[in-house]
């Protein structure tokens, strides 16, 4: 039985137009809807405030850009304080029909230990995520979403995208929400891992469906496949942060040795053309390597300072990620 109302939390950054299109369509009266507006400018803040007033949303209005992880943590805290017993985390550029959102809430209400996502489609209807995503523990390589599901594999970490996730209050509090070290990207990989370490499970509901316009929250994004400098920087940086957090010394050294290959893979996500027409992607990746190594050293020093060792609680698990539904 549900312990409280159903919450929806969205972190917005220059996304008032997306909120008007997607969040309005994804919620119903009675939902505890919290919008965390990470500050961009006064005009955008005013636009989000008007939407919140019109639709009865709760508005968190920090003076700065908190990042996705910290912003979500703040929003979930507000939703739980307002009586939510389960929370749907939703990107501004994602939309889910209210009956499908209700299905996800029902799943976590029935099983407090599950973190569940819908199948996620692109705007044209092609699959974006229809099973748990998979990362190789050996070097952090993300396996293609179209790759066959090979079942449980001790060398693979399964994870769920933060674009659309449902979680119960009990599990959220148990794992402590998102790790705010990441700021943007990889925090969902980290959360998925901690859910598994805490004895929880990951699930993709094969019936509930969300649509996701990936990258729609980047106002300066070019047309086509090109990515922003923000995308390159944080994907490169946070791969190193994740490895520093969860791998032992030998494993982390192996990750560091594969930095050139990892950088190439991230940059190619934006296509080859921009790599020969400008220095911006290369500059962003170089900064990501520099800052990721520095953050990794800080993370590992902190682990040792607490009397532990980096990676001692991060042994890869198996199983636990089960698509459900027809």
UniProtKB/TrEMBL annotation:
Q: Where is this region: Disordered?
A: 297-326
Q: Which GO terms describe its molecular function?
A: transferase activity
**Signal peptide coordinates:** none
Q: Does the keyword Nuclease apply?
A: no
Renumbered to this chain, the Gly residues biased-composition regions fall at 305-326
- The UniProt record lists the keyword Transferase: yes
The name under which this protein is listed is Glycosyltransferase family 2 protein
Tell me the classification of the organism that encodes this protein: Bacteria, Bacillati, Actinomycetota, Actinomycetes, Micrococcales
């Amino acid at each position: 039985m549900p312990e409280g109302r159903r919450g929806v939390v969205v972190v917005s950054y220059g996304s008032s137009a997306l909120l008007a299109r997607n969040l309005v369509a994804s919620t119903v009266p009675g939902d505890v809807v919290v919008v965390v507006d990470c500050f961009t400018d006064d005009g955008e803040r005013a636009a989000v405030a008007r939407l919140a007033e019109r639709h009865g949303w709760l508005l968190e209005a920090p003076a700065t850009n908190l990042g996705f992880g910290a912003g979500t943590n703040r929003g979930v805290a507000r939703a739980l304080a307002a009586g939510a017993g389960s929370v749907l985390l939703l990107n501004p550029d994602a939309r889910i029909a209210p009956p499908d959102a209700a299905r996800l809430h029902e799943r976590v209400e029935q099983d407090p230990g599950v973190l569940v996502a819908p199948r996620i489609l692109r705007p044209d209807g092609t699959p974006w995520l229809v099973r748990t995503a998979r990362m190789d523990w050996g070097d952090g390589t993300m396996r293609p979403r179209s790759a066959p599901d090979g079942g449980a594999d001790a060398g693979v970490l399964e994870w769920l995208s933060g674009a659309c996730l449902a979680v119960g209050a009990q599990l959220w509090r148990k794992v402590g929400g998102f790790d705010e070290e990441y700021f943007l990207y990889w925090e969902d990989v980290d959360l998925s891992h901690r859910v598994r370490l805490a004895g929880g499970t990951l699930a993709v509901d094969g019936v509930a469906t969300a649509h996701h316009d990936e990258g729609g929250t980047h106002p300066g994004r070019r047309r086509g496949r090109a990515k922003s400098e923000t995308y390159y920087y944080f994907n490169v940086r946070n791969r190193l942060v994740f490895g520093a957090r969860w791998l032992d010394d030998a494993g982390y050294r192996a990750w560091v040795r594969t930095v050139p290959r990892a950088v190439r893979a991230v940059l190619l996500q934006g296509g080859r053309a921009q790599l020969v027409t400008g220095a911006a992607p290369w500059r962003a990746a170089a900064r990501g390597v520099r800052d990721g190594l520095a953050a990794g050293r800080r993370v590992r020093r902190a682990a040792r300072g607490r009397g532990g060792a980096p990676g001692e609680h991060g042994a890869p698990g198996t199983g636990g990620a089960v698509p459900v539904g027809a």
